[in-house]
Amino acid sequence: MKKLLVRHLGPVEHGEVQFGDLTLLVGPQATGKSLFLQVAKLLIDRNAIRQELRRFNIRWGNSPEDLFEVYFGEGMSALYSEQTEVQQDGKPVDWTKLTEPRGRVPQSSAQKMFYIPAQRVITIRDGLTRPFTDYRAGDPFVVREFSETLHQLVQTEFAQREDLFPTKGRLKQQYRGLIEEHVFRGMVLHLDTERFQRRVVLQTPDGKALPFLVWSSGQREFVPLLLGLYWLLPPSRVTRRKDLQWVVIEEPEMGLHPNAISVVMLLILELLQRGYRVCVSTHSPHVLDILWALRTFQRYKGTEADVRALFGLDASMSRWAGDLLTKQYAVFYFQPDGQVRDISGLDPASEEPAEAGWGGLTEFSANVSEIVSRVVARSTQG
């Protein structure tokens, strides 16, 4: 999929997105960013979704309303109307054929898009991962699927060793050092056993286990994201998961200090280097700062050394940094009026307010600066 068009769906009146290697969606809450990304997931993974729903004996009808309730979540059928339209690469989509409840599921039903939702913190409860069946039938599919994936990983693949972080071979050494410094502060992400299940805890340097609820909010938000990234970035000669082509990460900045957000962006850019196409929804000016810098480097012949300086990386990352200058970056602003605008230029001097203000992310800071400057000027004149 190169382009997705959505019309008259919930808060989205008209939204067309041309995907890059890394695509950012920005805009206020409840403007349709998550809805748009979930539509993309539904189109790309229609067969895998149908297979997963059947595996857990979930029944649904053949109407768009039934599909909305079982996939987007309880009450979401209200977002659909007869005017709702979706086009994938210019071709209209028939809602009734997206995940037909009956019939044979094609063999080519492997998941192609890995979706890390904004609600990821609820996928771990008291340190225990939650399976698909631990949720209500009306909870969004992307949350239940991500939670099931983490549950299977922690109880099987990751359970083969007690320490999850830091672990040699998992992520590059420079990433591990930055995560240790800015997120875990010298503590170890550890697996122990509770009620015959593997439980995630943080372990202090003296070996004391800290349960999930006493972690910082940033650590609680980051750990499910980290475990998902572990799955996407295998510690072997295989650079990425065979069938996966896309990664969606909603609001990766939640609960994190700007230095930690930079680390998360490094991991997102690593996904690009592994061959994934990545979509990110964000409310963070810091995320946009990084993308603006990369696009500016491309425009003004920046070098790999400039990219390394941006993140404080040493010369061993030279090739990695140089490759980032060849990627395509796109940014789309989901406006309160339901329109979606391409602001990929991120030009602060643009005559278009949406682009100059980075989709509203810099408007407040600019307003504060203007007011403060006015006050200072008035004082000096007096």
Description:
With 382 residues, the protein is an alpha/beta fold. It folds into two domains: 3-346, 3-Layer(aba) Sandwich (Rossmann fold); 349-382. It is built from twelve helices and 16 strands. Strands 6-13-14-3-15-16 form a six-stranded mixed sheet, with helices on both faces. The radius of gyration is 22 Å and the shape is globular.
**SSE order:** EEEHHHEEEEEHEHEEEHEHEHHHEEHH
Q: From the coordinates shown, what is the CATH architecture of the largest domain?
A: 3-Layer(aba) Sandwich
What's the number of domains? 2
Estimated helix fraction = 25-40%
Helix-strand blueprint:
Elements: E1 3-9, E2 12-18, E3 22-26, H1 33-44, H2 46-55, H3 64-71, E4 85-88, E5 91-92, E6 113-116, E7 124-125, E8 128-129, H4 141-157, E9 163-165, H5 173-184, E10 188-194, E11 197-203, E12 209-210, H6 217-232, E13 246-250, H7 258-273, E14 277-281, H8 285-299, H9 304-311, H10 318-324, E15 329-334, E16 340-342, H11 353-356, H12 363-381
Parallel strand pairs: 3-14, 3-15, 6-13, 13-14
Antiparallel strand pairs: 1-2, 1-4, 4-5, 7-8, 9-10, 10-11, 11-12, 15-16
